[in-house]
Structures are given as C-alpha cells and as structure tokens.
Amino acid sequence: MPTLEKDGRKIWQVRTTKSQLIRWGAWLVGLAAFIFSWKEISDNTLWFMMDNVGEVVADIAGRATPPAWSFVFELGRPIWDTLAIATLGTFFSLVMAVPVAFLAARNTTPSKVLVRPIALLIIVSTRSVNSLIWALLLVSIVGPGVLAGLIAISIRSIGFCAKLLYEAIEEINVVQVEAIKATGASPMQVMAYGIVPQIMPAFAGIAVFRWDINIRESTVLGLVGAGGIGLALQSSLNVLAWPKVSLILLVILVAVVIGEWVSAKVRGAII
Amino acid sequence: MSAALEAKLGQAWKKPPFITNPVFRWVLIGGSILYFVVALGGIEVSWDRIVKGMDYGKRFITAFGGIFVALFDYIRDVFPWLSETFPRFFGPPTGNDPSDSRWIEIWTEKEIIKGLYESIVMTVASTVVGIAISIPIALGAAGNIAPMPIYLFCRAVIALSRALNEIIVAIILVAILGFGPLAGFITLSFATIGFLAKLLAEDIENMNKQQAEAVKSTGSSWGQWINFGVQPQVMPRLIGLSMYRLDINFRESAVLGLVGAGGIGATLNTAFDRYEFDTVAAILLTIIIIVMILEYLSGVIRGRVQ
Amino acid sequence: MYQGWKMLELQGLTKIYNTGDKALSDVTLTIPDGQVVALIGPSGAGKSTLIRCVNRLVQPTSGSATLDNVNVTALGAAGLRKARRKMGMIFQEYALVERLTVMENVLSGRLGYVGFFRSLFRKFPQKDVDEAYRLLDRVGLLEMADKRADALSGGQRQRVGICRALIQDPSLLLVDEPTASLDPKTSRQIMRLIVELCTERGLAAIINIHDVALAQMFVQRVVGLKLGVVVFDGGPDDLLPEVLTDIYGEEDWEATIEKVDDEDEEA
What we know:
The complex is a heterotrimer of chains A (271), B (306) and C (267).
Chain A: E1 3-6, E2 9-12, H1 17-43, H2 53-64, H3 76-104, H4 115-128, H5 131-142, H6 146-170, H7 174-181, H8 187-220, H9 229-238, H10 242-270
Antiparallel strand pairs in A: 1-2
Chain B: H1 3-8, H2 22-41, H3 47-78, H4 80-85, H5 87-90, H6 102-109, H7 112-140, H8 148-163, H9 166-177, H10 181-205, H11 209-216, H12 222-256, H13 264-273, H14 277-305
Helix pairs in contact in B: 3-14, 7-10, 7-12, 7-13, 8-10, 9-10, 10-12, 11-12, 12-14, 13-14
Chain C: E1 6-16, E2 22-32, E3 36-40, H1 47-54, E4 62-67, E5 70-71, H2 77-85, E6 87-90, H3 102-107, H4 116-120, H5 126-138, H6 154-166, E7 172-176, H7 184-201, E8 204-208, H8 212-218, E9 221-226, E10 229-234, H9 241-248, H10 254-266
Parallel strand pairs in C: 3-8, 3-9, 6-7, 7-8
Antiparallel strand pairs in C: 1-2, 1-4, 4-5, 9-10
Helix pairs in contact in C: 6-7, 8-10
C-alpha cells in the first residue's frame, strides 16, 4: 500500500507519488489544451454578432414555420434516390467487404506478411475518409448525381463492414472448423460449412447496422451534389426558402427514425 | 428397420428454408430483386461525363501517389538516420534540402495548415466539452440510478442528438451564428453527447450491482456513492470511449467546413472546385495519417486502462 | 491379442510445438484391422496431439503415420483430403457446426466425396441422404433431422457427431475424449454406441479417454501415454494399480478398479 513518511508517521495515500503526478500531469495537459483551443475558437468568432442571436433564431423560426407541406409531393424522387443510395450502397460495399475481411482475418488470410497488410490498408483508408469527402471526389470524377453518391457510400462502408466482419471471423470456434477439415473437405468447403455459418449472425447484424448509418449519411450527400434529398436541401437553402428547408429537415428526421426502427426490428429477428 | 425410416428412404432431402411461410418468402425474395433492378435502373449514368471525369480520376491518383512519394522523401531527408537504420526500406537519401520538398510547398501555400489547425482546435475543445456534458446526462439516462422524469429528459436529449446528422446541425448553426469554428465546435459537442452519454449510460446500467450496493450500505451520501460505487466501475470504459470519440470528432471536423462551420473542409471544398488535386491529395493524406495516429494512440491508452 | 491386417502404423511419431513443448516423442504403435484401442493418460500427455497427428490437423515434426499402406505424413493437400475421408473423427465438445441442421451436419461427413457447388447448394446424392437417414435412425435421432444442432442436448449432439464420422465410410475412427462433456450415464451410452458401431462395421478406432474405468469396460486394448511417451500397452485386465500409478501418479487405484468389476457384473 502506498504510504508517505511524514514526521516519522506513515500517512496512507490512494496512489503512489509517481502515479499521482502522472495523473495530475494528464489533467493539466488536457486542461491547457482545452483552454488554448477555446481561446482560438473565441478569437475566430465575431462575438458582437452574438448579441442578437435570440432575434436571429426567432426570425428564422418564424420564417420556417409552418413548413411547406405541399412541397412533400415534389420530394418523392429525392427520397427514393436517398433510399437507393443507402440500400444499394450497403449491398455493393458488403460484396466488396467480404473478400477483404477474409483476407484481413488472421485465421483465413492467405499470407500474413503480404496480403493482410494490403487488406488492412484498404480498411483504414476507406474508413478514415468521410463519405462526404468521397462524394466530393466522385462528383468531380463521374459528375454530379446519384451515381457519385452510390459509389461514395459503397467505398466508405467497405472499411467499416470489413473491420467488424474480420473481427467476427477471428472469433469463430476453431474446433468446428477442424471437424469439417477432418472429413476431407476442400478449403472452399471448409469455408462454406465451417466458417460461413458461424459468422452469419454477425454478418446480418453488420449489414443492417451499416444500412441504418448509410440512410443518415445519404441524406446529406446531396449538399456536395451527389444526389438524394440533400440536393433539395441545398437548393432550398441557396434561395433561403425556409419553409421548404424545415419540411426537408422533418422528412430527414422521419427517415432516420424509421431507418433505426427497421434496423432494430430486423436485428432482433435475426439474432 | 423402423417405419419412420422406411418412409424417409429414397426421399429427396432439402434444407428447411429460413423463412417457413412460402408466400412471405417468395414475396420477400421477389420484392428484393424487383427493388434492386428498379433502383439500379433508375440511376442516371452520363457516360460522356464519366469519360471526361476519368481524366480527373487519373490526375487525382497521380497526385496522391506523387504526394505520397514526396512525403516519403521528406521524411527520409529530415531524418537521415532512417536511411542508415533501415537502408532496404528507405534507400539512400536524395540529398535535397528538405525545405524544398514539393510536399512542404503544397502543404504551406494553400492554407492547409490553417485549416488543419482549426480542425484540431475544434476537435479538442468539442471533445472536452462534450465529455463534460455527457457525464451528467449519462448518469441521468441510466435507468438504475436516475428518477423517472430526469431519465426521460436525458434520454430525449440523447435521442435528439443521435437523430440529427452533424452536417445538418452545422447548417442550422451556421445560419444562426454565422461562418466560423464556433458553429463547428457546438455541432461536435452536441454530437458527442448522443454517442458518449448513450454508451456510458448503458455501461452504468450493466454495472455490478453488489459493488454499488456495498458502498451505499456504508451510509454514504449520493455524491460519495457515485464517486466510490459507480465511477470506478465505468472509468475505463469512459476513457476508452472518449478516445474513440476524439478520433470520430476529428474525422467529422474535416467535413464541417463544407457547410462553413470551420476547419479543413472549406479548404478541401475549394480545392475540389478548382480541380487542384495536389492540394486534395495532400489534405486527404494528412487526414488519413492523423486518424491512424489517433487510432493507434487510443488503442494504446485503452489497452493501458482496461 | 488379435493379429490382423495393419490398419494404422505409427513410426517414431514426434511433435514439438513452436513453444518448444515436446507433446509426443517417438511414438511407435500398430493397430490392426477392427481393433478398438483406448488411449489413456493424464491431461497434457499428448493424447489429443497423437490423434490429430494421424489426420494431420496437427503437423507432426517427424516420424510417419501409415493408414492402410498409405503414408499420410508424406501426402500433399489433395492426397491428404482423400486420406482424411478414410478417418472419421469424433470430438470432445461435439464440434458440430451449431447453426446448421442435424442433417447438414451429418451430410458434411460426405464433403470429401462431393464437389464444391453440389455441397454449397446442399445437393447431396440420394445414396448419401439415405445413408444419413439410416445412421440417424440407428442412433435414434431420425425425427431430429431438420432441427438445428444447437437445439440438441449434449448426448444427442455427440450422436450426430458419430453419424458425421461414420457417413464418411471410414476404415479408422479417431475419437477425442467423447465423454468428457457428458454426464456419467450418457457417457456410458455413448461409449457403448461407439464400440458397438465399430464392431458392426469392423472399424479400427483410437479412443482418447481419461476415465480409466470406462475404458476398461469397453475396449480390447489399452495404451498408456505419459508426457508423450508410450508407457503401457496391453489388455484392459493388465491395468494394475502400479501401472496406473506409473501413468497418473500416486493414488488409491483399488477403488477405481473394483468399481469396474462391480459394473461388469451388473452388465
């Protein structure tokens, strides 16, 4: 037990002096970083603009209500597109993520030195870049529209799905795989009978989970020109058509809530 | 031979279907295929534009490869000992002055540093504030320790934060507060709550009841109870989740600039508009490197505390 | 002792793991056609390693295993798959693929005979399906055929595991602690079933088992393994207390052996 000698008596302490110092140091560094960061943000903010924030909020709220309800009929196509981007994007990303996951998992990769690092690189690079950035890049390559959004979502989701899937592959029960091997099955059959049934629940869970996230992400892709309801949001914002903006935001909110509900239901049914 | 066996011999065997109701099964399969075909067919593809865009694609890939090599050369020139220690990996030094590197040139001229700096500042500030707000909300959203009205309120805050996309919150805040990092900072702080408070609340709900009760039975006050009975149990997870969120906030901060909420996103957007793929590649590479470093650090810290 | 055709011949089989642990050292053993051998020994004696070296789920460091005049140790990937078809394996924790049905688990024993796409679409030849039904009927699980494996009890799962091994049409059974996860009564039923089936089909078998009494009850020959070395090889009645002490260490063995005698009388 850490103690401190003081005037010949031992005083009990929770921690040793050294670990105590490290703790205080960590707190100090964190606090300093925060204060510094806050000062930077504050310096870059025109605070006198904030005096009438209340009025601005009230003004925008006034303009935005009531939402332009009838506009909802013009949103059919954008909503369809958004759903298509999310659903097809999830599908295509899974098609690509499955082989990547098998190449990345320690127990199924053909080569730990050569293939696995490449698979991990694909996972990291697709995951670190936000789907909006992928969308920006693809809009400049394939032109504005749904296609750019679809490819952006597909690429962005590869890393996410492959990472979760390869973790699931690494956690399978090896004895079941051994049992299939022992029957004289070929490597492909070992995969189909020993590994795939074991990762099916994880796979289904990942698919639905990512679909839910992709619904959220595809609603805003239009802001950079990549199709879907975000496009309508962008054009309404550009002309300051606040009643349309508030309606679109409501539609997005409803879509996200429905997406989450569906994904929770499907996950419950599968597992 | 039993009668049951005799009945089965010679009969074909089929795996029982996952969905037992045949009508429902075929409607589901047929509907999925139909949706797939219709949705895919509805996507407009402009081949002329793609052919033209391929050139941009090629330029981007060339730029990315070029900036990668430039970074590699820069590292080798700045740290000569790398060539000596790992000669097979790094090769001989180029002998150029590191400050003339193309990487440095692109990196300094285009406001990349300023944008990145702003992104990092927003990330740090919003993560700290987000954590500070998340803790009381998580306590309130834990069904086993919070009274009902507080529970419902905190759960509502979490649900709202999760339902609203960061970009949309940023758009609204930019409309209210004007351009700049303040909007981004508030956006990220708010988003942190939905993530951190939810997971932390779940962790508190799953904690070991006996430990918490043992502390309560000593006659401690509510504050002491939280401090001694609850906090030690959830602390490792809180630190792990905070590190993870720091990572997410950095990635998000990179796109908030697209809608004017500060950070590197604005620079990136401009670069895309002008088809300056060197700048785009430099920014993306920097983001990927920072994310990898953060991921590595958070892994190390999570390993330490758990 | 019965002397027939040499079904399995182990020559100087040795396994040293990467960690440096010597699990088997220079094991030489011959098992004739149709003989059921119990392999006894304390945990860590190398029993599991031995049978896994035979079908090369574990790669032996040196030595050879010859099955029916085929040197399994020297085979390439395709030859090994062919050889494995002739060795049915039964596992301690049943090792059924939990999320597949009983029938799929049994039919997976035919994977070595069926092409990839046929197996992927579950289009097994009718003769295999009939044989699967016959085996399930034999072990009393016919009506469970379309249940998922994780819905079964331990004893039932092990019966499915036995069917999976037998449908391979093997000439040798490798049985790894078949009763370790079962209660005493089910253990005995499973052991009896395995030995009966071996007699019916004239199969040779190696059965790893830590329960000495159970081994003595059912097998014709016992091999004792200690730290990877064969220290005993003889009939079940030759297992005297001093032999057991040699294998397992000091303990009062009279009780164990007497219990066996009682049970024999019951049976």
